[in-house]
Amino acid sequence: MKTRINTQATLSMRGAGYYSERTAGARDVINNAGPMIQAAIEEIPKDKILRIADFGAADGGTSNQMWDNVISKRRKAGDCRQIEMLYTDLPSNDFSSLFRMMQGMQGNSNFALQKNHDNVFVHGCGTGFHQQLLSNSSLHLGFSATAMHYVSSKPVEIPNHVHAACADINSKTAFAKQAAVDWQNILLARAAELVPGGRFICLNFGIDAEGRYLGNTGGKHMFDHFHKFWRALYEKGSITKSEYEGATFVQYYRTMEEFCAPFSDPNSDVSRAGLVLKSSSTKLTKCPYEAAFHDAGEGMSNREYAESLIPTMRSWSETVFKTALKGRDSSEINKIVDDFYQAYSDEVAADPKGHAMDYVHIILDIEKTAASMSS
Ligand SMILES: C[S@@+](CC[C@H](N)C(=O)[O-])C[C@H]1O[C@@H](n2cnc3c(N)ncnc32)[C@H](O)[C@@H]1O
Question: From the CA of 128, how far away is ligand 1's center (Å)?
């Protein structure tokens, strides 16, 4: 029997601020959600303290402009309440960069919450979001962007691909089951944490009604390219079979139906815990690196485009390939992984047409009602 691989200790975005510096797309997605967050805060009961949690925040650099904006607007509207900001991620996350960002010691200091605002208290939590992270009925607004597609454990290594979205039916089914359990746990944890009337707004990677998902929106398929170049290393003898198969993303892109299932049944555990879905929508965010390339015209070479696009892919994916190589010494790992991304970059530079990383999100606005049927 195959054992489940718990990945919580190893999964992480590249640290030292690399993640947020190279993920303009993720920042755009979060900034676009600002008005929705603002509107939700207006409706949440006005307790003495406003407690907010950003689940799966990485180094905090992709959401700090949005939070800075939201807090500035609250202050301008006369809301001077103390605000507690809890940033959560896995224990392997670079929280040091996050805390430095918030104090304006790293990254874009224009949005440093603790520098710009009085009465904003920043905290960090290094426990995964599949568990309850705050005490009962204490959270006013939960937020999460581009994080909850990570499943809590890898049910199988995918034999002939790197991602569940492209996997054989057995692997896909195993990931779907894990993702359903995880989604229920995420929701029940948030139900326990939220105050009555509190909200949980999440912008999750998913599959839209046209079957599109991250890096697969009509142009060249990003995950097929990851697989192609990883397999080439195996065929060349640079990596072993188990290293080839070990590069399985610990991710599952849920469909709208899968996201909504716990809310459709009034007797589900989630409904009984008092959660209701206020709205759901899908959104495609175009790759900002491709847009910049097109805008630049003659001003940007194909090679320069490749060198802007591949690092954004690398910022979140390299952990998967590095982890598959564990046991080798670090210089060897770095060399193999550098060669892998270089091969992808060379292909983009040779013919950039269709290479991009468009984002596909499923956006959910969830409310904790006063009437919960469980304690
Ligand atoms: C792609 S990054 C998104 C970061 C940021 N929210 C954004 O939108 O730019 C995904 C983040 O989710 C975190 N993550 C993955 N699984 C998690 C879990 N079980 N609990 C908390 N964070 C998790 C990763 O460590 C990573 O920092």
Answer: 9
79 within some domain: yes
- Residue 114: is its pLDDT beyond 80? yes
Distance between CA atoms of residues 183 and 131, nearest Å: 11
| Domains identified in the chain, total number | 1
Q: Is the pLDDT of residue 5 over 50?
A: no
How far is ligand 1, taken at its centre, from the CA of residue 11, in Å? 9
Q: Residues 88-116: what's their mean pLDDT?
A: 95
| 59 Cα to the center of ligand 1, angstroms | 9
- Inter-residue long-range contacts of 348-352, CB under 8 Å, 24+ positions, other chains counted: 348/302, 348/305, 348/306, 348/309, 348/310, 349/302, 349/303, 349/305, 349/306, 350/302, 351/302, 352/293, 352/302, 352/305, 352/306
Give the model's pLDDT for residue 24.
78
Q: Ligand 1: does its nearest atom lie under 6 Å from the Cβ of 87?
A: no
Quote the CA–CA distance of 337 and 318 in Å, as a whole number. Answer: 7
Secondary structure string (H, E, C) spanning 34-56: HHHHHHHHHHCCCCCEEEEEEEC
**CA 91, CA 45: separation in Å to the nearest integer?**
32
Contact 222, 214 (CB under 8 A): yes
Question: Is the CB of 88 inside a 6 Å radius of any atom of ligand 1?
Answer: yes
- Domain extent, residue 75, equals 5-215+250-287+357-368
Beta-carbon neighbour count of residue 212 at 10 Å? Answer: 18
> Does 304 reside within a domain?
no
Which residue do the tokens 């949690």 mark? 53
Would you say residue 280 lies in a domain?
A: yes
> Phi and psi of 93, rounded to 5°?
-65, 155
Look up the CATH number of the domain holding residue 186. 3.40.50.150
Beta-strand runs (E) in 1-130:
5-6, 49-55, 82-88, 120-125
pLDDT class of 45 with cuts at 50, 70, 90: very high
Question: Does residue 297 belong to any structural domain of this protein?
Answer: no
Q: E strands of 103-238, at which residues? A: 120-125, 139-145, 153-154, 194-207
Tokens at 338, concatenated: 């550098």
SS3 81: coil
